[in-house]
Design a protein that fits this description.
By secondary structure, this protein is mostly helical. The chain has two domains: 131 residues, no CATH class; 46 residues. 84% of the residues lie in helices and 0% in strands. It has seven helices and no strands. Helix 1 packs across helix 4. The longest helix is centred in the middle third of the chain and has 44 residues.
């Protein structure tokens, strides 16, 4: 039964997530944290790992969660669940979208969908910041990561790896101080 629940949960997330891996974060939190399958902190860790590992973040995160809950079979259930809706929808859209793509209603619908993504992400970002900004070192890492991304356009991989290194350095400095 748990395997079907894993598949179905990720199938629903895959079915209703528009805008990529980050857009699924609110749904993941609602579906997984509320069920007790993971914690907010673990979910953020999965996102961090999913960001720096090769592949699509949605597949990476779903695989990590499935593996944590039920090992390899759980990972397969969540991975198939997250991918299956895309396969179905893309197959259906590929056959019909070429005929209606230039339709203004379709274009406006996609613009509306794109506008929802930041609105869904903002509460999650605020929640993550509240949990993550625990000291001056964390604030420094946030500011440096923002500058590296916004001003210099560095690769997210380099930014995440650099932030990890800074986190280790700050924690060692903090321990020596205490």
């Amino acid at each position: 039964m748990i395997y079907f629940q894993l598949f179905w949960s990720f199938f629903k997330i895959g079915l209703f997530t528009f805008g990529g891996g980050y857009a699924m974060l609110p749904m993941l939190q609602k579906e997984l944290v509320c069920r007790g399958w993971t914690t907010d902190d673990e979910l953020m860790d999965y996102y961090a790992i999913g960001q720096v590992t090769p592949g699509i973040i949605a597949i990476n995160v779903s695989t990590f969660v499935g593996y944590k809950i039920k090992g390899i079979v759980g990972a397969l259930c969540t991975m198939v669940g997250i991918v299956m809706p895309s396969i179905i929808i893309i197959s259906l859209l590929a056959t019909g979208l070429t005929y209606v793509w230039d339709n203004s209603v379709v274009q406006h619908a996609f613009k509306g969908i794109r506008l929802v993504i930041p609105a869904l992400l903002l509460p999650i970002i605020i929640k993550m910041l509240k949990k993550s900004l625990v000291d001056l070192g964390a604030v420094c890492i946030l500011i440096l990561a923002f500058i590296a991304n916004f001003c210099f356009g560095l690769s997210p991989i380099l930014i995440v790896l650099g932030a990890g290194c800074l986190g280790v350095l700050f924690s060692r400095f903090k321990r020596k101080k205490v």
